[in-house]
Amino acid sequence: MPKSSSAADLLETASLPLIIREKDVEYQFHRVILYERLLKAYPYTRARVWKEARTDIPPHVRAHVWAAILEVEGDIHSLYSSIDKETATPTDRQIEVDIPRCHQYHQLLSSPTAHAKFKRVLKAWVYYNPQYVYWQGLDSLCAPFLALNFNDEALAFSCLQAFIPKYLHNFFMKDNSAVIQEYLCVFSHLIAFHDPELSNHLEGIGFIPDLYAIPWFLTMYAHVFPLHKLVHLWDTLLLGNSSFPLCIGVAILTQLKSQLISFGFNECILLFSDMPEINIELCVQDSIRIFCNTPKSAIYRQHARPAKKTIKADSRPNLSYYSRDYNDQPTNDLSMEPKTIEELRAVKCPHISAEDMIELGEFSGPVQSKSPTKRKHNSKPMLLVIDVRVQEEFNKGTIPSSINIPFQSAFCPEGNLNPCPAVTTLNAHPLQVKVVVGGRNKNALNFANELVRLGYKKVCVLHKGIDVLRNTSILTIPPADI
């Protein structure tokens, strides 16, 4: 008889590509047994389920693992049975039009039985959420949950009901323009933060996220990827916070950069008219990297789900990209505050809160960190502070180790930075987060926009400027030789 796999063999298999792991019968057998034991003890094993899901989720138990991650609990079948799914409503016609076009290549979802189930689940969601309206795309969101829970409509409904508030809070309001426009602005900032070259090119040809990204975010990519790819993407998306989908979008653009950077407007429109082939496993890896290298306040959204009144202790592992939403954390005078769409559009890069800056720069001060990044002992500071105030103001008090590049004299007529020791320091730190700090005028915003135009990566602006630090012990008098 063949020998069973040892722990070392299973560990080695876990390091192989996902497509290989899913075809390894013995590996899947061990993973399924483990998950079934964990699910029987849920919710007491919630943290362990999260931890194991970081490795992979076996297809055989994916439906119930997703439900556990989404914290679906209670008597869901009684709830679903109590919802009116039969009475005719004004949205019925649109639902009936959308369903026959939703993932109809899928053998299960293309059946008449599936269409009837689709309609009941969608009608239940609309009925149960009177504050929202039915938007096209809701059918795509429902599809993966229905495919996984084909014989359990109540669980499919409950997963959809838990998923939407977390990732699409207020997206399905009758007037959702403010929510979507803020989301797209933050997405544009994130592109510029990680890839200013691509951001400048797309902006230059007028190919803005409004033209291609709305179906991505409104359906959390369920409209643009086939289900066999989508489930692998959502295996990780469900572990991230509500901002993680933005990082997925940047990862997709990163994968297509070689094409996009050489395309004009019409070619870009044509490229995204039908989603190009995307390596999902690489996309997931890039998304995690992007998230972990982005200060959490840089992707703050005022329209994200408000903080829960109570947060279950130890319900999730305290690990980088699995961290809670920015809005779930306590706020203080150094936290981010809402900005209007006009204010967001006025700058090409994100803002960063003073608390994130303090942690990343290893400054001392009263702060409760919300950054998703983890610092290593004795590691170098992860940011470079650029103070763009005039030298007289800079000399009266600034952030420790910051460099001074006064905005008024920073650029030559050709638009490049004038050479000076501070610019040399800036150029010597290409991978560090660059925090532009100014006073009450718009010089910091304008300087940051110019840095993005020049192709500098990881540029952001300190929210509320230098004044936010006046009541802290952070500011110091710079050495005379700076």
TrEMBL record:
The keyword Zinc-finger does not apply. GO terms for molecular function: GTPase activator activity. Keywords: GTPase activation. Residues 56-241 form the Rab-GAP TBC domain. The keyword GTP-binding does not apply. SMART domains: RHOD, TBC. Residues 379-478 form the Rhodanese domain. It comes from the Eukaryota. PANTHER family: TBC DOMAIN-CONTAINING PROTEIN KINASE-LIKE PROTEIN, TBC1 DOMAIN FAMILY MEMBER GTPASE-ACTIVATING PROTEIN. This is TBCK. It comes from Mytilus edulis (Blue mussel).
